Amino acid sequence: MESNLESSPVGSPSKPGATTGATTPTTMTPSSSFSIPGTPTTRRRPTTPTSTMTPISSAQSSPPKRRSASMSGTLSHNSSNSNNSNSNSGGGNSRRGSSSTRAGSKGVTTIPLAKAMPRVLKISIGPGQLDCSARVTVTGGKPEAGGLPEVCPANKTSTASWVASSVCRGPSTRGTLHLVGFEPVGFSVAHNDQGQTFIHSKGKWRHTLLAAAQWDWRGNGDRPTEGKAADLEVCAGSYADRAPVLKVSVRPCTEMELKRYLQLRALQEAQEDADYDTLHAQVTKAKLAGVEMVAIERGLEKLADLRKQGLHVSEGADKESLKKLMCWDQITRLEMDIENKPCTVTEDCPCNDPENCGEVLEITSNAVQECLARFGEEADRLLFEELSESALAVQEGSVWKAGGKFIFSAFDRNQSVNALTRMLNGFGRNRCSQMLLEMVKHSEAKYGGYVTSVQINFHPHGGTFHAQHRDIYSAKQRAGPNCTCSFRKCVGTVCYSVGSTRACLLETMTDDLSALTPCCAECQGREETRWLHSGDAMFFNEAWNANHTHGIPNMREILPSAACGPRISVAFLLGAEEERAGLFKL
């Protein structure tokens, strides 16, 4: 098979017509290319029709090409531009843009490539209303250009970026934000679909940190009046940055935020102790203050553990002790005169007036017998026995210690009439429930207002007491650390007493809540002791409650030689009618 290709020795001239020895150069035209059927066709670099192919001798042939040095992270650059031009023009063996060099070549310089670490996070603090200092800990990351300043001013925006410690930043980056004066908060930012983005807890992209001064809630100390809030938000990164942004803004907290934060702290501190009554009260308060359900559920879990240990039953409130002490056969009656101790500093002291403007104080004998006459004779005894037997019939723990006395209520400490009667009916104590509802009806008809709550106090013996106090009629009054009263406008309180005779101490007050002015700096106030017998009802209105305190002293302290048996008091708090009308409108 003839071919147009003819062999040519090395060094033969490329000009047509030049001869060397017995050989003649062979030229290749575009029409001289051929292919063999059944074999793959090889693409060739297009050539000029008049070009000649000059074979390269074995002595001048280059070794096989090596992999470009740029593939391993370095760049090889030939310092001779002429060599590059010659290699590119000779035979088409070099590639455009290749950084490879021939073996044995001289003048080669190796330049390492700068590895740019990807950004994983950007922090933006401000503008806000308060200056702050922040520190950020990023797992697998480091700050870029020094990070955040020591103090981030309120009227400016301070930013800083964090880059990954390695080329691969992973699906997500986690860290912790430390704001001075606030509790540390964890966060996570995602870089792809496998990562997670949240602040404080999973599923949250926004969170508000709160901080305030320490509050001695156990000692009934003053509440802090101001605090700080830090609004946090995680945002997706912009197209240019390719990194998520954590925004921070610090401001003064609102009144509701301060209340919620202080109650959260009280709840957390109560969980550290094994006091069931205190923890139960703080859980109830946390619900009213709007504390997050996560914290409330932790408190409820702790309560369940304490119930398993039997710590929900107060000492002296177990059924065996109540059955032994709360018996009508053990009641005692004393005939004592009213004791009055006026202020002796000045004769015309306002505290010595028996009744001030707007005050109402009434003590009615045999009020229980009159109210519950349809249930039979000796209604005071019937009420005493019904309440005592009901306390033994319901779930143990419904009688619990509060101060120097015991309270009988629904098991969950709810002191509303509906909650108490619902529990009594559930345990088959329908007669006791009907007697209480009859007393509610009688009280509302005689004294006005409507019953908002009921408190049934158990005094098993003379050693119990009820400390001096005002009934809670407004939020201005300070309640005890475990008080769960809801503050509504009230018109008065009526308290029914059944069982043994007990003293009731009344004290005239001249503090900020009282409308009375002390006679001088040494004003002693006035003390009056009234004696409450079985069946008596004591009523006082809002004006009297503001100017006085009342309580049940320890009989073993005021009359050590006198015997004193069990007593039960049923106190109804009477709300204002306009409050009920507004409630119906809602």
How would you describe the overall organization of this protein?
- There is one protein chain.
- Helix 2 runs antiparallel to helix 3 (276-289).
- The strands form 5 sheets. A 7-stranded antiparallel β-sheet has the order 14-22-19-24-17-16-15. A 6-stranded mixed β-sheet has the order 5-6-3-12-11-10. A 5-stranded antiparallel β-sheet has the order 13-21-20-23-18.
- It is elongated.
- The model is unreliable at 1-42, 47-105 and 581-586 (pLDDT under 50).
- The longest helix is centred in the last third of the chain and has 18 residues, at 430-447.
- The protein is α+β, with helices and mostly antiparallel strands and 586 residues long.
- The protein has helices spanning 81-89, 255-271, 276-289, 293-308, 319-325, 367-371, 379-393, 417-426, 430-447, 542-547, 555-558, 577-585, and strands at residues 74-78, 108-112, 119-125, 134-138, 141-144, 158-164, 172-179, 185-190, 198-199, 206-212, 227-235, 245-252, 339-341, 361-364, 399-402, 405-408, 450-459, 466-469, 490-499, 502-508, 527-532, 537-541, 548-552, 567-575.
Q: Class by helix and strand content?
A: alpha+beta
What is the C-alpha radius of gyration, as a whole number of Å? 46 Å
Overall geometry: elongated
**DSSP strand tally:** 24
Strand content: 15-25%
Residue share in helix: 10-25%
Low-confidence stretches: 1-42, 47-105, 581-586
Main sheet summary: 7 strands, antiparallel
